[in-house]
Amino acid sequence: MTQLVKVARIQLVNARMVLGLPLLVLACVLAANIVIFMAIQAPESPGDAPMTGALISVYIVTLVTHVQTMTQMFPFALGLSITRRDFVASAGLVVVGQALLYGVIIWVMSLIEGATGGWGLDLAMFDLAFLQQSNVVTQILVYTGPFLLLSFAGLWTGIVYQRWGQPGVWVLMLSLGALLVGLLALIGWQDWWQPVFDFFAETSTLVLFAVYPAVIAAVLAAATYATSRRAVP
Amino acid sequence: MSVVSLQGVTKRYGETRAVDDVSFDLHENRIHGLLGRNGAGKSTAMRMLTGQEVPTSGRIRVFGENPYENADVLQRVCFIKESQRYPDIFIARHALEAAAMVFPNWDQDFADRLVDEFRLPLKQRVRKLSRGQLSSVGVIIGLAARAPLTLFDEPYLGLDAVARQAFYDHLIADYAEHPRTIVLSTHLIDEVADIIEHVTVIDRGRIVMDDSSENLRSQAVTVSGPTKAVEQFSDGHDVLHREDLGGFTRVLLAGVPSERETASLQVEPVSLQQLVVRTTQFHDAELAGAGNGPGNSNGTGKGDRS
Question: Mean pLDDT in chain B?
């Protein structure tokens, strides 16, 4: 365990960059959205509250950060005689901690958003209607789940690049694309659209945004570990 | 005592054998030179014995255990390589801080002194460091880590002569105070000739020389004089290299010639660099000769020297 903490500290030796950059991006996106909505809202009727999907930016940045965890930090760590096992485990530790931290931060932002009347514009960027929970813990988990999913997806993509290079990443992306298209085709062909819609409508937000992502994240974590075994720095 | 042992180790990448049935030992508290041409297999061998690559076949033991994914072994190993990449988000200081956390014997005072001496700008982004500054990051980590097994793979690309000399001086001084097993892999053989105590030369994935510097130095000589006398003298020894000029001949011999008539001959010691270069060429020529059928290789050459 001490070894894992040590390796995690190496990943966070530049914590300001690792943990701070996504938050900086988030702050900039928030500022940009406030400006944009101020500009477009002025002449409009203040009828229904505007909503922005800009929150997704911080999730995407986190994914990219963790691709780099594997393409840049992994070779460095192995150069310092750290085992793949220890590195992947501590990367998992960092990801889980970071996801929870960001979950809390976004929850706090949603509180501020509520208190300031949607940044004075009735703007909803954090406190999105379809994510709302009645309890603090599940609310934070709903924000955290997608971070877990995307971070581990980033780690796996990164280690696939380390292991098989650019061609490996292409194969991975094309396979995912083919899988998705195939799935859509299957649903269309079997006329399953109604059950699919029902599934999303009936599944609770907590399960959809926290439980399922966490399960997929666990699978991705296992894939990351397996791929790392023969990865060379 | 041997700290590292490779037995019949082969690493294949597709059709190429980067390392081909190699066996050698590294001894405790000794400075080894792992020498050879580009692509000879030095780096591959070092990557395998630090667990970064897995051999196709053969057995590797480091401190008596398989190094692959072995944290107990690896924390006693420090491998500094020229090709080491650092995360883009790092400044130079971060690399040293990370190393300080990992290596149990890390000496921060020593590291600080080295930073001064190598004039490493600690606050500079790693991406903005010059080739030489990047090399000094590796050199500082390698020295200050004081790992029981420390490997330097071409550690000083881009370092100026003064900085290289500083590296050698610190290496020797610190080694005297804190003995450990050191491997130096380099092309600058002349510069390290006085430092290394044991020489292992690898060529085309095979070991062509593995002996103590002292033995090698005493065994190899150049002999020059009238062709006939030189040929008489060298009979029965490995002629690694031969130059003829008029009636005069100059040969590089391996294996100490016994007391013979040397009145008309000039016998001189050979530099390690010369010996390594000529041995490698000799080995290459032998391989080429073997490809042309039997009897084509140099008649005086026996290939193995023991």
Answer: 89
Does residue A110 surpass a pLDDT of 70? yes
- Residue B231 parent element (H or E): helix B227-234
Q: How far is A224 from chain B (nearest CA, A)?
A: 16
A231 in contact with B at a CB cutoff of 8 Å? Answer: no
d(CA B286, CA B237): 16
Residue A33 tokens, joined = 């959205």
Closest chain A residue to the Cα of B71, Cα to Cα: A83
**ipTM of this model?**
0.87
Whether residue A233 lies inside any domain: the answer is no
Asked whether residue B296 is domain-assigned, the answer is: no
Evaluate if residue A48 carries a pLDDT over 70: no
Q: Is residue A218 part of a domain?
A: yes
Decide if B242 is inside a domain: yes
B188 and B277 part of one domain = no
Distance, CA of B148 to CA of B180 (rounded, Å): 5
Mark yes or no for CB contact A14/B88 under 8 Å.
no
Q: Does the distance separating the beta carbons of B89 and A84 come in below 8 Å?
A: no
CA angle A191, A217, A135 (to 5 degrees): 90
Rounded distance, CA A114 to CA A120, Å? 10
Out of B47, B88, B99, the one facing A80 most closely (by C-beta) is B99
Rounded to 5°, the CA angle A43-A49-A51 comes to: 105
| DSSP 8-class letter at B193 | T
Q: Pick the last residue of a domain from B196, B215, B234.
A: B215
Query: Tens digit of pLDDT for each residue in B157-198?
Result: 889 999 999 999 999 999 999 999 999 999 899 999 999 999
Please give the Cα distance from B149 to A62 (Å, whole number): 38
Contact residues on chain B for A72, CB-CB shorter than 8 A: 85-89
**Average confidence (pLDDT) over A171-189:** 95
Q: How many CB atoms lie within 10 A of CB A222?
A: 13
Question: Is the CB of B79 less than 8 angstroms away from the CB of A230?
Answer: no
Same domain, B188 and B280: no
B179 touches chain A (CB under 8 A): no
Q: Phi and psi of B304, rounded to 5°? A: -100, 140
List, for residues A122-176, the tens digit of each pLDDT value: 889 999 988 988 899 999 999 999 999 999 999 999 999 999 999 999 999 999 9
